[in-house]
Amino acid sequence: MPKNFDVVVIGGGPGGYVAAIRAAQLGMSTACIDEWKNEKGGPAPGGTCTNVGCIPSKALLQSSEHFEHAGHAFADHGIEVKSLSLNLKKMLARKESIVKQNNDGILYLFKKNKVTFFHGRGSFHKSGNDAHEIHIAGATEEILFAKHVIVATGSVPRAFPDLPFDEKLVLSNTGALALNEVPKKLGIIGAGVIGLEMGSVWRRLGAEVKILEALPTLLGAADAQVAAEAGKQFAKQGLEIELGVKIGAVTVGKSDVTINYADGKGTAQKAVFDRLIVSIGRLPNTEGLNAQDVGLKLDERGFIAVDGECRTSLPNVWAVGDVVRGPMLAHKAEEEGVAVAERIAGQHGHVNFNTIPWVIYTSPEIAWVGKTEQQVKDEKIDYRTGSFPFLANGRARALGDTTGFVKFIADAKSDEILGVHIIGPSASELISEAVVAMEFRASSEDIARICHAHPSLSEAVKEAALAVDKRALNF
């Protein structure tokens, strides 16, 4: 029998499950449909982020960092480790346990907030001004009627041309997180976030890693000073990155992958890898939505077309997260999900794209918000900068990690903060202060005048703000 809801959310990733919870909190009858399955075939909400993205990758990054510290850094602290060995099976089991905790946590939150959950694939069957008919293909077939629909179906990995993922030799993020042994030689196509993070994990665990990047510069979206420091640190760690590469023939053998390519100077090269990770971006996941039949418009790149408030071409149908324009970030999806739920309820949901932080969870961590120095130059904005190295920070010295710096970019006339860029310990946490400051249009002087605990890494943020006015106290 058909079921009626005020809001039906298709997709249970960060944007979808958060949108469903917020809609329910606002008093609307809400359902969420998600098709992810765990090993036993049961529901595993949380999307790519929870299952094969953000959460498991951070678990492996943490475990592999502990392994590297035990082998190389503990001795400096007077901790002697003998007969260090890797139990990869247990490490992967820990990762899976963390994933399951997050899956179960989302199901609990649905129950707590009275969100009705359906396990299966949701698709449009009919669309009208007053209601939309949604079909669910799962263990049992369901038909739902909704006044409003929020599409939050996320994204899928982009395959290299004529090189499909088999998740055995040619790996997407899914296979990269589930290798049952450390490859001797690991190749990666793409030096983006996934490539750098997965390269870091397997290098720490003993793989010889080579990353092939088509662009002539590393981390082109980051501030140039940060990118340069990152490249220097990755090289020091043994992460080999070749830029300006043109991939030629790729041959998949029985137990290896051979890549013929031209390096940045145009010289022909050949590399043979035990495993190859392809991380060249992601595509919007609209397959199976039945979008064309109901008139749900897609843009020229295959994303669901939306306006500034995430409305689609269909009345009372919205879309959020990776399946629409904007950065493919879990926290961006969450903010859009909340904003849409509030707009449906007649409120004024808010997402400021200018203050969405970016984070790369390598070592050192890299995080930024706002404009880079290149961008303010291109926009011909009169600006000042201030930087402070972690080398001069007492807490960083105590931690044994003094790599990197904090950099502020501020308007030369108003002193408003235009961007903050961090490479170093706990950058992912430190960037939040900058996000708050920029959301309230603070000046660098505002941060410089705020008392920060001593000793703390956050003092580097204060000192960088002071440096905008050339009055850093500890450097």
From TrEMBL:
Question: What subcellular compartments does it reside in?
Answer: Cytoplasm
Q: Name one Pfam family in it.
A: Pyr_redox_dim
Give the UniProt keywords, A-Z.
Cytoplasm, FAD, Flavoprotein, NAD, Nucleotide-binding, Oxidoreductase, Redox-active center
| A GO-annotated cellular component | cytoplasm
Question: What are the recorded Gene Ontology BP terms?
Answer: 2-oxoglutarate metabolic process
- Cofactor details (free text): Binds 1 FAD per subunit.
Recorded GO molecular functions are: dihydrolipoyl dehydrogenase (NADH) activity; flavin adenine dinucleotide binding
Where's the FAD/NAD(P)-binding domain?
5-337
Catalytic activity field:
N(6)-[(R)-dihydrolipoyl]-L-lysyl-[protein] + NAD(+) = N(6)-[(R)-lipoyl]-L-lysyl-[protein] + NADH + H(+)
| Principal place of residence | cytoplasm
Q: What class of enzyme is it?
A: oxidoreductase
Q: Which residues form the Pyridine nucleotide-disulphide oxidoreductase dimerisation domain?
A: 356-465
SUPFAM superfamilies assigned to the protein according to its UniProt record, in alphabetical order: FAD/NAD(P)-binding domain, FAD/NAD-linked reductases, dimerisation (C-terminal) domain
Write out the residues that bind NAD(+): 190-197, 213, 281
Required cofactor names: FAD
Question: Which residues of this protein are catalytic?
Answer: 454 (proton acceptor)
User: What cystine linkages occur within this chain?
Assistant: 49-54
**EC number(s) of the enzyme?**
1.8.1.4
What positions does the entry give for FAD binding? 58, 122, 153-155, 322, 328-331
In the UniProt entry for this protein, what further remark is given in the free-text comments? The active site is a redox-active disulfide bond.
What is the similarity comment for this entry?
Belongs to the class-I pyridine nucleotide-disulfide oxidoreductase family.
PANTHER family from the xrefs? DIHYDROLIPOYL DEHYDROGENASE, DISULFIDE OXIDOREDUCTASE
Check the record and name the NCBIfam families matching this protein. Answer: lipoamide_DH
Q: What is this protein's record name? A: Dihydrolipoyl dehydrogenase
User: What phylogenetic lineage does the species belong to?
Assistant: Bacteria, Pseudomonadati, Pseudomonadota, Betaproteobacteria, Burkholderiales
Name the gene that codes for it. odhL
